[in-house]
Amino acid sequence: MKKSKLFRTLALMLTVIMTVSLFSACGGDDYEEIVSYIDVSVDQDTSDVGTASDTESGSSKAENTASTASTASTASKNTGSTASNKNNGGGTTNNSNSVNPADYKGTTVIYATWDRSEGTDTSAVIANFKKKYGINVTIQTVGQGNYVQSITGLIASGKSPDVIKDCGFWPTFLTIAQPLQNAKMDLTDPIYDQNKIKQSTINGKTYTVSSLGPIFNYVECVFYNKKLLNQNGIKTPEDYKKIGQWNYEALDKIGRETAALGSQYKGFFADNFGYQLAKSLGYDFYTYNNGKVSTINFSDPTYLKIAEQISTWNQDGILATARETFIEGKCALAISGSYGCLKTGYWYQMSSMWKDIGIIEFPSFEGKQPVRQVGWNGYGICEGAKNPIAAGIFLRYYLDCNNYDLKNEFISDAALDFVTKHSSESYEGPIVLSAGAYDALGYDSIIRYYWQLMAEAPGQVQSLIKSLEPVLNNDVKNLNSYIAKQISEKK
């Protein structure tokens, strides 16, 4: 039976157990117990999508507030009120001219993922893919929290899936992926994010692909509760933006005024125990660029100020440490990413309040504008995949946002417009490393340092950062050694 468990959190964080995102995983050492299957292949009726009652994806249908089977007939239509989406340059086939999809009709592609991993109704798209190409797709449910380890076990037992998902798993993702070139994919196709392709290319071989557009190219954003702010006479972020003052001072003012409403209120929630704010200005512990990992400049005065500010907000009771605070309407803002713009994303429990959720860019800090934080997310072909070329055909179709009914996937037209505006182009620059880096280092949590810095007294933050400097520098050295080893083994 499936169980819910935290993603290997630090022992000291047990007191704030609800602050960590819950990942789905299964107990037991037997990989037959870790994975389950949903056969979503269809014959003639594209709305006849079968599910398995013992899986999360099957049981989630009742709580999924997005449209489901009815979108099958409209999934290929982008009916959203969007800006021009620059991901629409693809043809109807997914791969190079040497691949004929008809040669793979009747075969099956196995896609290993977890429940609601996209935040969209992918059943309709998969059904339409089967109808178009006659290629079956089986979803293999693997928990996010131990994804790489589970896939490694499947590979070792000769039961490799075909398509795998990279959600911050780099560089450990290299241990389970084979080159996309083996799938004969045309990686120059304009739907794909070329920076992600560049960053995941080693010795001329590419291991991760993602697409541009509002479904798969995640962007950072600030969500705010318009109703809560308006009812209490508190200016919204949009009010400040209109007068050119959407900055940290405005964020602080909104947070303090909201927290003053009562003991059950907080000012705002921010991912990574507040450090999503530092990330938005380009500061993170591990970044990857052109095959090398680096860390922050520990003496950067802007970074030190932001770190102290996050600690101050925590000490003053402004900072919420759980998304539930925003879901319950008890804090003004949630500083996170565009997964929350999707109907089955972070705010799927708030369907009655979607109309009251505003969306805006991150605030500036002392005149410094936020930078695009590029996280590591994408898709690959598994080592040992039995149907890699059909998997490539599937990925080209699956990753094309034009195959989704976008208007029906987002919590509002404003959310769709915001994400489309910010996701339709590839952003050059370093990639932020997260879970994969911590796993490669043998650490037990992806939030190891964020929590420590947030919980520290403001006056002691700089000293803590100074003590972390040699530790993080050593981490970087070890990560680069790990990557060099993987590169050597991929030759």
Strand content: 15-25%
Q: Please count the helical segments.
A: 16
Please outline the major beta sheet.
Answer: 5 strands, mixed
Through-space gap between termini: 40 Å
Secondary-structure content class: alpha+beta
CATH topology of the largest domain: D-Maltodextrin-Binding Protein, domain 2
Number of DSSP strand runs:
18
CATH secondary-structure class of the largest domain: Alpha Beta
Q: In what order do the strands lie side by side in the largest sheet?
A: 14-11-15-10-16
Mean pLDDT level: 82
Q: Say which CATH homologous superfamily of the largest domain is assigned.
A: Periplasmic binding protein-like II
Indicate the topology.
Layout: E1 2-6, E2 22-26, H1 31-34, E3 36-39, H2 56-59, E4 108-113, H3 122-133, E5 136-141, H4 147-156, E6 163-167, E7 177-178, H5 194-199, E8 201-202, E9 205-206, E10 220-225, H6 226-231, H7 237-242, H8 248-259, E11 266-270, H9 276-280, E12 287-289, E13 292-294, H10 301-315, E14 319-320, H11 324-327, E15 331-337, E16 357-360, E17 377-382, H12 388-398, H13 413-423, E18 431-432, H14 435-441, H15 448-455, H16 461-490
Parallel strand pairs: 4-5, 11-14, 11-15
Antiparallel strand pairs: 1-2, 3-5, 6-17, 7-17, 8-9, 10-15, 10-16, 12-13, 12-18
Brief account:
The chain is an alpha+beta fold.
Give an account of the 3D structure:
The structure is a single chain. The protein has about 500 residues and is an alpha+beta fold. The chain folds into 2 domains: about 35-215 and about 375-410, Periplasmic binding protein-like II (D-Maltodextrin-Binding Protein, domain 2, 3-Layer(aba) Sandwich), CATH 3.40.190.10; about 220-375 and about 430-490, D-Maltodextrin-Binding Protein, domain 2 (3-Layer(aba) Sandwich), CATH 3.40.190. Helix content is about 30%, strand content about 15%. The longest helix has 30 residues, at about 460-490. Residues about 1-95 have low confidence and may be disordered.
